[in-house]
Amino acid sequence: xxxxxISRQYGSGGDEIATRVCEMLGYRYFDKSLMAQAISEAGLxxxxxxxxxxxNYIAVLDEAQSIALVQAxxxxxxxxxxxxxxxxxxxxxxxxxxxxxxxxxxxPLEARTQRISQQENSGLFAARETVVxxxxxxADYLKRFYGVD
Length: 149
Prior knowledge:
Elements (H helix, E strand, L loop, with lengths): L2 E6 L5 H12 L2 E3 L1 H10 L21 H18 L2 E4 L3 H4 L6 E6 L3 H12 L3 H23 L3
Parallel strand pairs: 1-3, 1-4, 2-3
């Protein structure tokens, strides 16, 4: 039972690639919505479930509780195997676990800006700001909670 973690730059097409990998391998796609579901199934009241996106990691629970829940959910899904984990710092949480393939999806800033501009039906300037903001938020999240640069 294998695990693939996919970290990606915002707008790089990493989510689409992850979806395609899941289709090709018959693996489950594990992202923030399934993480919230897993934590809910563990008995945490819905009112305390946070938005686990890297750009909104501070929420109802304190940071230590939030990150502990993320890590527990990632470890639990990894035990089940045959999963593609998208984001959430999966590459950091599972860095020493055998049987994990870590993939990083990148694209030039111009291509990512164009993709986001089309997806959000916005101008290139606004799309570029969004891409840069998401990149910085993800970098801050990984540095703060996992010491990853």
